[in-house]
Amino acid sequence: MNEILSPAFWEPFGLTLELALITTIFLYLVGIPLAYYLAFSKIRFKAILEAVIAMPLVLPPSVLGFYFLLMFSQNGFLGAIWKELFGHQLAFHFDGLVVGSIIFSLPFMVHPLLSGFKSVDRFSIEAAHTMGKSQIQTLFRVVLPAMKSSLATGGVISFAHTVGEFGVVLMIGGNINGQTKVASIAIYNEVEALNYTMAHSYSLILFAFSFAILWLVYTKLGNEVKASFHA
Amino acid sequence: MLKVHLFKKLQGATGVIDFEVKCDFEKGVFWTIFGESGIGKTTLLRMIAGLETPDSGTIEMDGEVWFDSTKGINLTPQKRRVGFVFQNYALFEHMSVLENLLFAQTHKDAKKAEKILHVMGLDVLKNRLPSTLSGGQRQRIALARAIAQEPKVLLLDEPLSALDALTRSRLQDELKKTHDIFKLATLMVSHDRSEVFKLSDQVLWLKEGKIFNQGSPRKVFLSQHSTSKFAFEGEVLDCEKRDSIYVATIGIGNTIVEVVLDESEAINLTVGTSVSVSTKAFAPIVKII
């Protein structure tokens, strides 16, 4: 029981929440322009872009993780740039987890936002334009406020999905205390070491946390969120 | 003065229509664009607002060129200063009534916005959200919002079509009153003759993408039936044979009437046919209802 009171026990949870929070914030920054573009532009290769964004939904996390690992290592394309800029490679580092999670959870943010953008009344957008409002002003004052539930859906699902991530994190992060050992990895570790008491402690807390998120979703948020979870 | 001369190929219900309209719309005049569905009435308004691009032609407002295909000029809707009332009103649901008006203004001026609401008798609604309003109230807010923009021209796309007959009739009076107060160049799309007659100073009647007739409602519509004392537009709802005669059931506005016909008259009538019902011989009785 003493172990549960130690800071080392809680570290993976802190890391998990930090990862999920940072990932969700970045996903908003990337997802809103991307979904806006997909919803309103008429370019020819949109289907290709949509397919690339949806890939994480169908690929095994180990496949993604493997390619991320190659890209994120210091010999890889992204890893080399990162090392040049920040002095460390992306693989086996918290930054790598963030970048990997952003790509891995992208469809969970983009899809609800895309359906949100498409649901906004086209005429209210045109009305704002006739009122002299620019595209950006219209986006922030008219479009986004009209799709609050989609914004909430994207955020909640991306956050929850990042918390529950395992395969990709294991492949690119490994198991470094305080750096890449998130809660799901910690459970795997304890089970491998046949330390079932600790595995139970981690699992139960994650179980309760996940339940709390879903409970919040089902009581506070609209049907749209529920539908996304069912999908 | 709004000067318009536009060409556009439109995809109509029966194939491609070559749309061509040339007309000058004066300030303070209530114009109605009249005609059947799908012949480009709404497209005309949208082209004036800059929401759709004509294939060629010119749009000029008080000497300022908004569109000129030969010179490659095409101002964005943001730069044209039109007030557009959409068929579904397009209110911003997350803003209160007053906020809707403030958002529409180029320079925020709460006093001016409240004055418009006051003149139109909408003061009491100013803090309400659009979702709590009735259809008629929403329509009036959409109109107030368009006026708050201080537009050079007011464009109304079938603004009353979603309302019940009673509200519609009341709002027609109000629309007329509002127009008289603010004296804007107003262009309204409608396919309801009585509405057109009641509201407009001038009618632009479009048929198959071209101007079919133009002038005062009296001139445009009454000349059609100059030999009849009484004439109503209606739609055949049913036509059946009873013994040796035919009885056609015809819907005229909100009223349904049965008319006795002989075979030669009935033979061409099918359900859905638009007809004119007229009488010459009898003196009509007019009663207040």
UniProtKB/TrEMBL annotation, chain A:
- Report TM segments: 20-40, 47-70, 90-114, 151-172, 199-218
Q: Which InterPro entries match?
A: MetI-like (IPR000515), MetI-like_sf (IPR035906), ModB_ABC (IPR011867)
Q: Which Gene3D superfamilies match?
A: MetI-like
**CC terms in the record's Gene Ontology section:** plasma membrane
Provide the membrane topology annotation. Multi-pass membrane protein
Similarity annotation = Belongs to the binding-protein-dependent transport system permease family. CysTW subfamily.
Relate the protein's function as given in its record. Part of the binding-protein-dependent transport system for molybdenum; probably responsible for the translocation of the substrate across the membrane.
Identification of the protein by name: Molybdenum transport system permease
Natural source organism? Sulfurospirillum multivorans (strain DM 12446 / JCM 15788 / NBRC 109480)
UniProtKB/TrEMBL annotation, chain B:
Keywords attached to this entry: ATP-binding, Nucleotide-binding, Transport
* InterPro entries, per database record: AAA+_ATPase, ABC_SmlMolc_Importer, ABC_transporter-like_ATP-bd, ABC_transporter-like_CS, P-loop_NTPase
Query: Which Gene Ontology molecular function entries are recorded, alphabetically?
Result: ATP binding; ATP hydrolysis activity
Domain ABC transporter: start-end pairs: 2-233
Pfam family of the protein (one): ABC_tran
Please give the superkingdom of this protein's source.
Bacteria
Q: What is this protein called?
A: Molybdenum transport ATP-binding protein ModC
Organism (species): Sulfurospirillum multivorans (strain DM 12446 / JCM 15788 / NBRC 109480)
Question: Which lineage ranks, top first, belong to the organism behind this chain?
Answer: Bacteria, Pseudomonadati, Campylobacterota, Epsilonproteobacteria, Campylobacterales
